[in-house]
Each structure stands twice: as C-alpha cells, then as structure tokens.
Amino acid sequence: MDNVTIRNGKWSDLDAVVDAMRTWWGGRDFSALVSRSDFVHFNDTILVAENERELLGFVIGYLSQSIPHEAYLKFIGVRPEQRKHGLGRNLCDRFFARCKDRGAITVTSCTSISNKASIAFHLSLGFSVRQGNDTVDSVSVFKDYLGKNSPAVLFERKLA
C-alpha cells in the first residue's frame, strides 16, 4: 500500500465511488443509495483512499441525526486486489475515531444475509450481531429490513 492517501470525501468523488461499487461488487447498482449531497453534508465521516492513479477504497458513514451518540457505517469498499492488506480496517478505524471525537459511543451497520464476506469483515472489526426477529443460516436477521423478503444482519460496535 505504498503512496496511499486517505482524505475526506468530496462531492467530486461520487462518480468514482459509484463506479467502484458497481465494478468491485459484481455489477450491482448502488447509485440510488448514495448521492452527491452525502459528500457535501457528511464529508467529515466519508473517507476516500487513493494513490496517484486510482481510488483504492472508501468508507461512507454518518453521525445519526435521530439517535443520540450513534453513528451509522453505510458502505465499506476496497478495490479487490487491495483486500487483505489492512486498508479496509484502516479506513474503518479512522471512521470510528472521527465518530468518537464527535460524541458517538456506538456505531451500527447492516448487510445482506447473503454477503458472507461482509458479515465476516464486520465481525473482525469488533461488531456484534444484534438480535433480530428471525434466523437465516444460523444468523440472527431482521426480516424485510432491506425490503420485502430481503433480511439484513444488523451490527453494533461500542466505541471504547
């Protein structure tokens, strides 16, 4: 990971992040779930990792506007060939520190039950699975959380 710069996201990063999501995550389109206004209004907790040539990773998260002392980690993305080298953990650790500095004591997140790699990564970051209202593949889930017939695993991590 030579010459990696990690900085706050900015509005001009949106297109590269949306393209990366599509490319890195098997062609799925997440463009409706992230917007330029996220990068304007929440750029303090959006982080982008890059080198002089390309986007290497990102974290998109927010301080909750409705739940005091809570932050939400919405997306974690790392270029496939950069995975398993600590970049995702580094980005998340920086996100956690920023949230803690701003008064958060808990970070929540969620993922689809089908995304086993994401579940494992969240657990490796110290998240625990919240007790849901159903179980799928021996994992507690919240039914219909991501839409009809689309259960999600919800996570929680206390900030020490």
Can you walk through the features of this model?
The chain has helices spanning 14-24, 36-41, 87-101, 116-124, and strands at 5-8, 46-50, 55-63, 70-78, 106-112, 128-129, 134-136, 139-141, 152-158. With 160 residues, the protein is α+β, with helices and mostly antiparallel strands. The strands form two sheets. A seven-stranded mixed sheet has the order 1-2-3-4-5-9-6, sandwiched between helices. The two termini are 28 Å apart. The mean pLDDT is 94.
Q: Which labels suit this protein?
A:
single chain; 160 residues; alpha+beta; 9 strands; globular
Number of strands: 9
Helix fraction bin: 25-40%
Class by alpha and beta content: alpha+beta
| Mean pLDDT rating | 94
Euclidean distance between termini CA atoms: 28 Å
Strand content: 25-35%
Radius of gyration: 15 Å
In spatial order, strands of the major sheet run: 1-2-3-4-5-9-6
| Shape verdict | globular
Q: Which residues form runs of ≥5 with pLDDT under 50? A: none
